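assembly run, all chains below
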Amino acid sequence: MDRFLFLTLDGLSRGAVYAAFALALVLIWRAGRIVNFAQGAMAVAAAYVAYSVTAATGSYWLGFVAALIAGLLLGAVVDVAVMRLVDHRSPLNPVIVALGLVLLIHAVLGMVYGNEYLPAQAPFSRTALTVGGLAVLSPYDLFVFAAVGVVGAALVWIFTRTAIGLRMRAAAFAPEVSRLLGVNVSGMLTLGWALASGVGALAGMLVIPTELGLHPHAMDLVFVSAFTAAVVGGLDSPPGAVVGGLGVGLLLSYVSGYAGGDLIPLAVLVLLLAVLLLRPGGLFAPVAARRV
Amino acid sequence: MSATRAPAPPTRSAAANRLRAGRPVPTLLRHLAVAAGAGLLVLAISYQLDSFRNFQLATVAAYLCATAGLTILTGLCGQLSLGHGALMATGAYTLALCQNAFADRGVTAGGVLVLSLGAAVLATVAVGALVGVAAARLRGPYLAGLTLAVAVVVPALTVTFDGVFNGEQGLAVPMAPAPASLGVYFPYERWQLWVVTVATLLCLVVLANLVRSRYGRAFRAVRDDEVAARLAGIHVARTQVIAFVVSAASAGLGGALLAVLAQSVSPGAFGLTLSLFLLMAVVIGGLGRLAGAVWGAVLLVALPDLTHTVTDLFTLSPAAAQRLEGNLPLAIFGCTLIVVMIAAPGGVQGLVSRLAGALPARWRRHRP
Amino acid sequence: MTDLLTADALAAGYGPVPVLHGVDLSVAPGTIAAVIGANGAGKTTLLRTLSGMLRPTAGRILLDGEDLRGTPVEQLVRRGVAHVPEGRGVIGEFTVEENLRLGALWRRDRADAARALDEVYQLFEPLARRRRHLGHQLSGGERQMLALGRALVSRPRLLLLDEPSLGLAPRVVAQTMALLRQLRDDTGLTVLLVEQNVRSALAVADQGVVMSLGRVALAAPADRLRDDAELRHAYLGF
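ok done. output:
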C-alpha cells in the first residue's frame, strides 16, 4: 500500500510534466492544425541555454528564466522563419519540415555541447519527504506541481480573460472572419507558437533532471509520452491534455514500479497504439465518429 | 508515376503507344533487363574501386532497399512513416539472430545467408503488418506520431530484452568468407558488394513491377483521393496495409543487408535519426519516384563522407573535429529537408524531370 | 460629393480561374447599393476582392479616393469598412458577448467601444438576453443579428453584406432591410449589399448593380430597376 501511494504521487508528478508538454502540443494544434514534432528538440535546446547560463552565472534560477525566454523566442522564430513558408495544403509538409528542424536542432546542439550526457541540476532535493513513516513527495515534486499549476492557471487566464487570448482563439477558430474583424491572424499564430514553445521549455526543464541528464535526444521518449497524453485527451482539448498527461504519468509510474523501468518505452507504445485504435479522437471526443 | 501528375501531351502518348505496339516488351522482362544491366555495371565498377569504395557502394545499395520501400509507401500511397529505421532494425536483428543460430549449430555454409535474409524479410513483414493495420486507420499527424513512437521505442526494446538482443552492445553477425573459388586474395568488400547488389536488384525489380501493376495504380488512387478510390472499388484500408507491408519488407531487407555489411548490429545504428534520414532521403530524392530513392540512398552515404573530407580541411582540436564531423551531416540533412520542402517539394528527381520537361518535346526520351 | 467606394476595372479570380473581368462600380456615401445577379455572376468574389481577401489581378479599389492596394485585410476595419461574409461568420465556439467584443477589440477608444456594445444590445434585444450563449446555439435570425451587431460595434462607414437574406424567414429579411434603411438615414451608413433576393434588395437600395458573368451589366437607380418593367425584364428576367 505504501508503495502504491508512493508510485501514485510519483506518477502524478511525472504526469504533471507530460501534461504541460501535451498542453504545448495542443496549443499549436489548435492554433495551426500542426502537431509540432520539433517540440521535444526545441525544449532540449532551451534546456541547453539554461545549462550555459547557469554555468556562467552559477544561478539555477537565471538559467531557468533564460530557458523560458529562449523557448518563447525559439517558438516565434520557428513560426516566422520556417513554418509560415511551408505549403500547408498537404498535411505531410509541416510534419516533414518539423522533422527537419529536429535534425537541425540535434545537430547544432551536438556541435556546440557534444553528444554526451551533461549533468542536469535540480533546484530542490529529489529525496522524498516522509510523513508518518510514509515516503511521499520530494520538494522537487512539489516544485513541479507548483510550476505546472502556475503555468496552467496563467494559460487559462490568458485565453479566457484577456483580449489577446480572445484574439488568439478567434484566429484559430475562424482565421478569415478574424482578419475581417481586424485581428492580425499570423501574429496570433506566432504568439501561439511562442507560448507553446515556452511551455514546452518549462516541461523540458522540469523533466530533464529526473531522467539521465541533458542530451540532444533527452526529450525523444518524453515527446512520445506527451504525444500519447495529448492523443488520450484529444488533440483539440487543453483539459484533455492535462488529464491525459496525468494518466500517462500514473500508468508509466505503475509500470516502472511494478514491472520494471525497462518496460516504459514498450508501455508507451502499447498505450498509444491502443488509444489510436480504440478511441482515435481521444477519450473526451464527442461521440460522433471523427476522421483522423 | 509522373503520368498521374501531369497528363502527357497527346503527341507523346501516341508515340508511346506506337512504340508499345511495335515492340511489346513485358514489364517484368524490361525491368529484369535493366536490373541485369545495372548488375553488370556494378560488377565492372567493383573491379575499379578500392575496398572502401566498394563497401560504400554496397552501403548505398542496402539503404536503397529502405528508401525505395519508403518511396512506395510515402510517395506512392501517401502514408508517412517515421518508423522505417525501426523496421530496418527488425530486419537487422533477425538476420543477426539467425546467423548466430546457424553458427551455434555449426552451420557455416555461405548459402544459409539466403535463409537468414528470408527470415529477416518475413519478420519485418510480420511487424510491418502489425503497424500497417494500425496505420491504415490513421491519418496525418496521428500516423506520424504512431510511427515516430515505433522509431523511438523499438531500438529501446533491445535494452528491455537484453537477454536476447544484448542491450546497447548489440550482436555480432557471423559471416561466411567469400567463396574460395574467387581466390585467396579476393577483397571481401567486393564480395559483400556483389551479395548486397544482387539482393537489392531483386528487391527493386519486385518493387518496380509492383508500381506498374494494378496495385501501384491502387496506391496512387488512394494517395490522390481516398473517397474517389473507394468509389472506384478500391479497398482503401487493404491497399494501405499492402503498401505498408511491402515497404516494411524492403526496409527489413535493407536493414539485414546493413547488418551483413557491418557484421554486427547495435541499437545505436537504428535510432530515430536513421528514420529521419530515410525520410529525408525520399523527400530529397522526390516523393513517389523510385529513381528519387537512388538519389536519396547515395546522399545518405555520400554526405557524411563529404563532411568528413571538409572537416579535414580545417585544423581543429580532435574533440571539436569529432563533434563537427558527427553532427554536420545531420545539420545539412535537416536544412536540406526544410529547404526542399519549402522550395522544391518535388525533390531532386522532380527538378530533373522538370528540366527534362523544359526541353523540346522531340528531345524527350520516352518515360514508361 | 466624391464616392466613398470606387472599383475601377477590377479583375480577380481563384488561382488560374478568372471570375471578375473588369468591374466598375461606385457607391456614394450615405447610400445603399445592391449588387444583384445570378449564381456565379461573381457577386461574392466582388465583395471578397473589395475587402482584400482576394488580391485583384488588375484594376483599382478606392476608398474615399485612396487606393487600397497593399492594405492588409485586418487594416480595413480600421479604415471604417466592415464586411459580414458569406454565411455570416459567427464564431460558433464563442459566446454572443465574445463575438461582439471581438468586433471592437481593435478600437483604442475603450469607452466608445463599450457604448457601441450597449447600443447593439439595445438594437437587438434577443442578443442581450442570450449574451452567454454560444454562437452555434443561436437561431438563423439571431446569428444575423449577431453578425450585423458585430459589424456595427466597429462603427463602420461602409458595410459590406454578403447575402443577408440567405436562409431567413421573409419577415426577418424585411426587418433586416428596414434596419439597413434606418441606419442609412440615422447615421449616414453606406451599405454595399450582395443579394439573390432581388425584390427585398431593391426595396431598400438607392442603386442597383446587376452583375452577369463577372461584369457589371447595368448600374441604375434602384427605383428605375424596380419600376421599369422593360429594364427589369431584360436584366432580371421577371
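Chain B has one domain: 23-363.

Chain B is about 75% helix and 0% strand.

not gonna interpret more than that til we talk
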